[in-house]
Design a protein that fits this description.
globular, mainly beta, single chain
Length: 120
């Protein structure tokens, strides 16, 4: 059964850092494109960043460039989202999603999300 489980969310102060994890089961992250999306209260879901099967990353959101990075541990079958210099506007439920090989195109599988709150 294909499954994605996010973890690592929580409350962090502005300027702080947080690392989210996306653990996959039922398929190999190394053969997949894994993306992070987020949905803030009252707003539509937006793409944040994606890593393709080749390891290249694609930023979907200009607002996170230079602050968020994506990485992958094939041995743990897990993808990470490192978030630095967090701002209140980064507050959202963060979801990971997967599709085969490339970051372009709609995602096929979704996790249930983890809440990140940036507040003092």
């Amino acid at each position: 059964q294909l499954q994605l489980v996010e973890s690592g969310g929580g409350l962090v102060q502005p300027g702080g850092s947080l690392r989210l994890s996306c653990a996959a089961s039922g398929f190999r992250v190394g053969y997949s494109a894994i993306a992070w999306f987020r949905q803030a209260p009252g707003k539509e879901r937006e793409g944040v960043i994606c890593i393709s099967s080749s390891g290249g990353s694609t930023n979907y959101a200009d607002s996170v460039k230079g602050r968020f990075t994506i990485s992958r541990d094939n041995a743990k079958n897990t993808v990470y989202l490192q978030m630095n210099s967090l701002k209140p506007e980064d507050t959202a439920v963060y979801y990971c999603a997967a599709r085969y090989y490339y970051c372009s195109g709609p995602m096929d599988y979704w996790g249930k999300g983890t809440l990140v709150t940036v507040s003092s």
